[in-house]
Every structure is written in C-alpha cells, then in structure tokens.
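Predict the holo structure. Ligand: zinc ion.
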Amino acid sequence: MSALSDYGRPGDEGYENRTPLFESNSPALKFKVYAKCSTTKARASTMVLPHYTARTPMFMPVGTMGTMKGITTKQLEELDCHVILGNTYHLGNRPGKDLLDKAGGLHKFMNWSRGMLTDSGGFQMVSLLKLAKITEEGVEFRNPHDDSLMMLTPEMSIELQNSIGADIMMQLDDVVSSLTTGPRVEEAMHRSIRWLDRCIAAHKNPDRQNLFPIVQGGLDIKLRTCSARALSERDSPGYAIGGLSGGEAKDQFWRMVSLSTDILPENKPRYCMGVGYAEDLVVCSALGVDMYDCVFPTRTARFGNALTMSGSLSLKSGKYAKDFTPISKDCDCPTCKTYTRAYLTTVVAKENVGCHLISVHNIAFQMQLMRSIRRAILHDDFPNFVRRFMSIRFGNTVPLWIINALKSVNIDLTVADESGYLATSIDSDFKK
Ligand SMILES: [Zn+2]
C-alpha cells in the first residue's frame, strides 16, 4: 500500500483469521489485542461490549442531548461509528432519569444499537456552571432553573448513568484544569480515587455496564504515577486518562499520556479523554492509547471547517468558491460523493444544511483515519504510516512535541527513511 488513503477504505482491516495475542475478560467487556506494533506501543484490538464489538484504536463522536445535532443514528452507523458518547449532565436534564427508566435506557430511547459511553456529568457541570463548588461529598451547584442548591455526588452520577444504560460509564472525578499547580492537584487526585470507590460501590449493573476510572494528577509525574497505580489495583474493565487537553503544552501532554499507558494494565483498554485532532490521534495511538473522544470534528464543522489529512479547509473563507472538487477525493462519505467545495461554500453561510454536510464529512474523516491506523498496525506497517501521515500533514517541518513523542517510541522523523522523508522541528503547535 503506497497512498495513505488506501488504508482508510472500508473492508478487511486485517483482523480476519487471527487469534488474540492476549485479552481480558470482564463481565461486560472482553478486550482482545490482535496485533502489537513491533516498533511503537500501538496495538489493534477489539472490545466486545454488551451492544457492539468495537475495533480499536477508535474515535467516539460526542452526541450532546442524545442526538448528534441533526445526524441520525442510521447515518452514524453508515459512517462506521462503533461507540458514541452521551453527556450525562444534559441527559439528566432532558429526557431525565424517569423518562429514561420508562424507555428502558438511552439505546432504546434514541434507537441506537451500537456502543455508547457516558461521562460522569461532573466536567460538564464544572465547565458550564460558574457557581459549581467541589466538596468531599460531591460537586455542589446552583440549579440554573430555580436557583436552588443541588449536589452531584459519585452515587448520583452512577445512578443516572445506570438509568442511561451506556456500555461504558465514567467515574465522577474531581476535575482541575491542567494549568492548575500546587496542592490542589494532589487533593483532586486523591479525592478522585475516593470517589472512584464510592462509584464502584454504587454501581448496580456490573454485569452489563462497565465503569472506567480516570487517571488524574495534572502534569506532575509523581502524582500521575500514584493515580495510575492506585487505579490499576481496582482491576477495572478499562481505564481513562483524564485532566489533559486543557491548554497545557503539548510536550507535557504526551509525556503524561505515555507515562499513564506505561503503568495501566496492558490487557485493558485505555481511553484518552478530549483528544480529537488527527495528529494527536496518530501520536497517542503510537503511545498505546485505544479510545478517544472530542467535540472538535462536529464543533469545527459548525464554523465551516472541513477536515482533511493536510489540515482544515475553511469553506466560509470563500477561497473555494470556484473549486468544483469534493472536500477530499479520497473520502467516500455522502458529502464528498455528492457535493463540491464550491457548492458547500454557497450553503455553509446559510447555517444548518452546510454545517450538517460538513459534520457528516468530518465524522467520516475521523473514522477513516482510525481505520487507517488499525489497518497499519495489523499489517505491522504503522511506523511507515506515521511517517507518511506526518509528511502529508506537516511537510518537512514537524512540531517539536511530535518529534519528541515519536522518538520515545522509536520513530525518529529527523532521520531519513527509505523514501527519503525526514523532518526538522518547529517549536510550535500545529494550526487547528
Ligand atoms: Zn467526505
């Protein structure tokens, strides 16, 4: 396979006729690692969930309010989404716990038959409600509707997530910004472990729902090590790496991710929260991460930005008004098969239709990228894939953090490969 796009096409990724190298068997999650990259820490696996067998590394689109902003569940299936993410805070408000109980969970309520993951609601609460206050009991906040004081405890978060019925639930954690330093980071890390144990005790459906703990500890090596070790002792079905992607330097970000994947159990899935830029997905997969989520692909679509391997196309800029090619000729999504950049430029100004078409493409782009990553790992061609990806995305000047991160897993972009590609570093983050 020479062209990068060859990797993203649907069909056999290379799982057929293989036996797992190793696996874990939790009551509601079987994780089977089928291939490990012989150079990096990347692996290609399947995750058998109660509702679906997902292939990893995978990207999970975020569907706020239980719907994907105008994209139907059928379209998400056609775009090859394996697991989608629901926001517990929004779902708790509407449709609400009682209606979800009556409907028999969110899967039935929204007619989605594949995998689903819900967050704890805590992050949404802290970021949306300015008055949120954290105590040992939980997250205290003023109800925006009637101004009364309310509390989200670990027990309440799990009760609500049990009603939603997602395949994977997240623990309530004490969230601090990745830019916070000092004793507050240590307090939050230890409190998150105490809250994890309360979540585990409150969880009523361990036979059909999986509770993932979240590694915290800010950007502090000792604290993050302590957190990852403590969580590993809980023998959970999978683990999340949290508290990152909050504006910290990317060179610190990747080191915290790598440190976490080194400690977390090898036979369990690892989920890096809030990561969705293409280069981050490629680098973190090389560091041994299996799952990602981010609002970025659909949020940036609302601003008229279409994702491609070489970066974002701003369709609102007018630059493509006379361009009669699709967003990407290598993309097999309904938008690229039907519409030109010129057409999308015309409709993108008129809000919903254009944004919807770009959202469809952006989700398809994420799914194609993840297929490419899985296929490259399964064919033990991942280091070559990484080099080709970086050459298309950045040319010969690659951000320093990426060069450092890849060097840590034995890919040295500063030394020429067989094709002659090599890169020098620029000390800045990539344009988004
Ligand atoms: Zn497309």
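The mean pLDDT is 91. The chain is about 40% helix and 20% strand.
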